[in-house]
Amino acid sequence: MKGKTAVLTVVLLVLSMALSACGVQNTGQNKQQSSPGDQVKPAEITANLQTEPQSIDPAKNTAIDGGTVIYHVFEGLTRLDKNNKAQPAVAKSWDISADNLTYTFHLRDGVKWSDGTAVTAKDFEYAWKRVLNPDTGSEYAYQLYYIKNGEKYNTGKAKAEDVGVAAKGDGTLVLTLESPTPYILELLAFFTYMPVRKDIVEAHPEDWTQSPNTYIGDGAFVMDAWNHNDSIILGKNPEYWDIKRIKPDKVTFLMINDSSTELAEFENGRLDFGSNPPADDFQRLKEKGVLNIDPNLATYGYLFNTKAAPFDDPKVRKAFSLAIDRKAIVETPPSTGEKPAGGWVSPGIPDADPTKDFRDVGGNYYDIDKADAEEAQKLLSEAGYPGGKGLPKVTLLYNTSEDHKRIAEMLQEMWKKNLGVDVQLSNEEWQVFLQDRANGKYQLARLGWFADYIDPMTFLDMFTTGSGNNDADWSNAEYDKLIAKAKQTNDPAERMKYMHQAEDILMDQMVVLPIYFYIDDYVAQTNLKGYHEDPLGYSYFHEAYKE
Q1: Is residue 212 exposed (0-12), middle (13-18) or buried (19+ Cβ within 10 Å)?
Q2: HEC profile for 42-62?
Q3: Listed residue (497, 487, 49) closest to 257, CA to CA
Q4: Which of 219, 341, 348, 407 could disulfide-link 75, Cβ–Cβ 3.0 to 4.6 Å?
């Protein structure tokens, strides 16, 4: 995301145009709900997370569910407004050096933790160095490699004191970057950059997030209870500096994974907001005025374990990709409007010329309208498995969901028809699935990736060597160089050129198998106003209320 208002306005216009071109439309309430003013009666909001978060630690979370909770309990130096533009939050202002490498943040007075303790610049310095500390094991540590010596510290080549973040007293934080980063102010709103309390984390290193007594945040809400496998209940934080903006007294996040159960709870009034409506009910829900379909910057696909046979061979990976009919997958009833993915980076992200979309400029890497069985069979034969003979047993792993199962079964049938390969299906509950995928205990696993900010880099640097989210365990020196060059240049055309070249390598090696580009479909009660659902996949209820 660009840091200047004029450029960002164009960026968001292009995002809207690109997603409209993909056939995405809002069929229910307006995504950006109007604020009701101060006379709204406080409300209790109930929304569905779908799954229990694996973590709600800002340093360790990697998923939308955990991030949604973190965004309600914590706040960073900046926060994103409803146009995804960075606004002052804990930092009231900042100064930027002429070379765009040093940012001096001035914290606002009176910002407190939920237990009444003052938030200081030292809390940010500790939190960021904790993320980068290799002992923490943060999968998102690479998001802080923009900080000078951040990567070196994370990889054991520098000390904590070498990292380019330093508190100058309680109210000033100085950030030094490796190279100018045009979207750094937006990135500072990301949950991995949230402050945490050193005294609490170090006193309860394994379980500080598990109890309301120790899950101390600086955001709009506090945890009142975590009822595992059922709900997380948040109450308004009386110490929050901007409490006048906060409308609900209580937000309850349920953990209903089954879409039919979620819809039943929604229709009986227990649920105000649901993020997983059954596709079979779309038309009925649309007619009732409760279905919303919004843009998303996200890609659905599968990840290859590049260290496990037979997917240690790029020809096998490409054969499996070419044997897929993506158009049939998205158009088979119940169709929900997704578009076949012709690459990894989703539409909606501007190229160097902000009137053009990165995906359109990059084009498709294969035919998105049909399978290429002939070329797929040729590649499989070249890899030594003619007609699938001799191919090691293949198991596809997905997290438990009827929709994931439906797609997995379609892929299974396509690979049998077009490659002569029998693929076994295996499903696991969400937290077990995430662990097994991260630990390389799979051959082919489902992957859904949502952008963390509006720039192609959010889809690409996750596959650099050693990245915490590189569950494919893939390494390519030329790819790493291109990503590094893209991060080190100020020239927009050069940046995009390097990122296009990087995606060329990623798709040529077929490290990830894109299936379709997400849309955001959800249900909201007609009397629910003021919530915000952004294209990065997060739901915000800070200003939500009921008419």
Answers
A1: middle
A2: CCEEEEECCCCCCCCCCCCCC
A3: 49
A4: 219
